[in-house]
Amino acid sequence: MTKSKTVSAWAALLPLALVLAVRSAGAEPAPTPAADTVRLTILHVNDVYQFQPTAQNRGGLSRMATLRNQALKESPHVLTLMAGDTLSPSVESSAEVDGEALKGRQMIDAWNALGLDYAVVGNHEFDFGDDVLRARLQQSRFPWLGANVMSVKSGQVFDGLKAWDVRDVGGVKVGIFGVVLPETQTSSKPGPDTRITPYCEAAKRSVDAVRAAGAQFVVALTHLAVEQDRELAKCVRVDVIIGGHDHDRVEETVAGTPIFKLDEDAVDLGRLTLELDAKTGAVKKRAWKVVPITAKVPDDAAFNARMEEYTPLLTTLAQRIGRSPVALDARSAQNRLGETNLGSFLTDAFREATGADVALINGGAIRADRVLPAGKMTRRELYSLMPYRNELVVLEVPGTTLRAALENGVSLSSVDGKPPGRFPQVSGMRFTYDLRKAAGERVTRVEVRGRPLDDAAVYRLATLSFVASGNDGYTMLKGLPTLPASKDLPSPWDALTGAFSSGRPAPRAKPQGRIALVGAPPGGLKAPPAMK
Q1: Which residues contact 448 (CB under 8 A, 6 or more apart)?
Q2: DSSP string spanning 290-329?
Q3: Residue of 241, 231, 203 lying closest to 46 (CA atoms)
Q4: In the prediction, which pLDDT does 493 show?
Q5: Which residues form the Calcineurin-like phosphoesterase domain (predicted)?
Q6: Could you tell me where in the chain the CATH 3.60.21.10 domains are found?
Q7: Any residues with CB less than 8 A from the CB of 9 and at least 6 apart, and which?
Q8: Out of 78, 152, 199, 389, which residue is the most buried by the measure of CB atoms under 10 Å away?
């Protein structure tokens, strides 16, 4: 790209405007440290699924690049960290370029363009399997960490990952290691040779190794639930934990170790400023602040230039595919707690597209995590609803197995627990479950097309390939006969595109009473603000 050499009045004022924009976002430069002190600035984000700003015009890695460049002007000792989850699930990762699904390639290009220093693998880094993850690791121009991600065959860390690293920062040796939550083994798709081992044991090995390599200051870069971060702080001595996964801001100290975490999609930037003793690496002073990434922060031109190849994709995602006459409740927690108008619409569309008797999907497949307003629906919004690449299948399901599937769907529901991704959204049937009963005995009533479920009958069930393969606890469906017509079925996206464009079936404004709950406390089940 050729740059103009003409100096206009605007160009002359641009540096000042940039500084003022960054300062308005809260990134005031700190005073110069003493001669015996090294200032280390750690910039961090986590759970970043798109490089563009969000629908609310927050975030955007181009804006983050601007803030990073400003930090580098203030001090040469800057580490930029990403605490896991970026390859999936996202709209862009679901899209195809030249007939090939991106599967996170665009995010690695974005992090390369930004100048990321380190990332830890999150649970969603394994969503496309080991081979895709290896390809993304090779594409990255920064190290990925994962001390507890092991190969069974070799006994070594997963190929392409590092357990730990040490970097010289102004004469102070900074050690860093990364760990991911063990639930990744079953919640995502690591291969048969990949094992996610206990994080405390891996952390102890890594800290011993970085200390032996001369590290004076140790950073744990984690993708754990906050309770696990607290456990980590108790089981191993580190200087700071920078975490992800929860999608919630955290600032606390456990066993003398500070823990910092942010929400998702880089809507904010964490900025940790540390003044370290130049000889020992001991912390003299520590300050953490959250810098909002808003439209007040200008884009970085160099970043945008390096991401130009994705402009046609962004144009395609903006295409109109139809409309919805009502707002659609795509909040993740709501779709894991009970019936929603979106869950009913999706299953209605899948049942009609396949000619099945009933339909069932797992609530965790619905990912947009917001209420989509009535009106135009774009391809981006379609992908945001269900970003995972699934197939529609029709299974021949005995009534007893259908009942067992519903039991599985509500088996993890509780008054105060995390809403389970296996919770079922359904079409062509109604059921009641009692939260006071033991798991496996909760479903008290099931009707199919207005008639009681016949345990001896065989029903045609439309579902997603993820569920049909036995995931999310739906093992009773694995291996069941698939109707021959499944070979010619539309994809879930095509089925929904047809529904949005034709208006058939039409989404309803409110849930239809397909799922009834008994034994809930007054006010119903609680929903957390965000889901992973």
Answers
A1: 357, 358, 428, 429, 454, 459
A2: EEE--TTSPPPHHHHHHTGGGHHHHHHHT-EEEEESS-EE
A3: 241
A4: 95
A5: 41-248
A6: 37-312
A7: none
A8: 199
Residue whose token pair is 């979106």: 342
Q: Which of 42, 220, 81, 211 is nearest to 148 (CA)?
A: 220
- State whether the Cα torsion 274-275-278-282 is positive or negative: negative
Bridge partners of 329, per DSSP, are 371
Distance between CA atoms of residues 338 and 526, nearest Å = 11
Sole residue written with tokens 């860093």: 176
CATH 3.60.21.10 assigned to domain 37-312? The reply is yes
The string of pLDDT tens digits covering residues 76-124 is 999 999 999 999 988 899 888 888 889 999 999 999 999 999 999 999 9
Burial class from Cβ neighbours inside 10 Å (0-12, 13-18, 19+) for residue 34 reads: exposed
Q: What share of the chain is helix, strand, coil (3-state, %, to 5)?
A: 30, 25, 40
Supply the pLDDT for residue 416: 83
List the one residue out of 217, 184, 223, 196 whose CA is nearest residue 81: 223
- Looking at residue 472, what DSSP letter applies? G
Please report the pLDDT score of residue 2 as a whole number: 34
Strand spans (E) along 129-282:
144-145, 149-151, 164-169, 172-180, 194-196, 217-223, 240-243, 250-254, 257-261, 268-277
Residues 6+ apart with CB under 8 A from 312: none
Residue with tokens 């200008």: 298
Query: What are the residues facing 476 on neighbouring strands?
Result: none
Task: Tell me the pLDDT tens digit for each residue of 366-391.
Answer: 988 889 999 999 999 999 999 888 99
What's the CA gap between 490 and 474, in Å, rounded?
23
d(CA 390, CA 137): 24
Calculated CA dihedral for residues 372, 380, 54, 273, nearest 10 degrees: 140
Lowest mean pLDDT among 212-216, 277-281, 364-368, 374-378: 364-368
Residue 513 has what DSSP assignment?
A: S
Concatenated DSSP letters of 392-449: EEEEEEEHHHHHHHHHHHHTT--SSSPPPTTPEEEESEEEEEETTSPTTS-EEEEEET
Q: The pTM is what?
A: 0.80
Tell me if 190 sits within 8 A of 196, measured CB to CB. Answer: yes
Return all residues near 150 (Cβ < 8 A) that are at least 6 apart: 156, 157, 158, 194, 195, 196, 197
- The CATH T-level fold of domain 320-518 is 5'-nucleotidase;  domain 2 (3.90.780)
Reported for 201-206, long-range contacts at CB under 8 A and 24+ positions apart, including other chains, are 201/148, 202/147, 202/148, 202/163, 202/177, 203/147, 203/148, 203/177, 203/179, 203/232, 203/235, 203/236, 203/238, 204/235, 204/236, 205/147, 205/163, 206/147, 206/163, 206/164, 206/177
Q: Record the tokens describing residue 308, joined without a space.
A: 């130009």
Token code pair at residue 53:
């700003």
| Overall average pLDDT of the 181-199 stretch | 95
What length is written for the chain?
532
DSSP, collapsed to helix, strand or coil, labels residue 14 as helix
Chain segment 351-365, per-residue pLDDT in tens: 999 999 999 999 999
Residue 154 DSSP SS3: coil
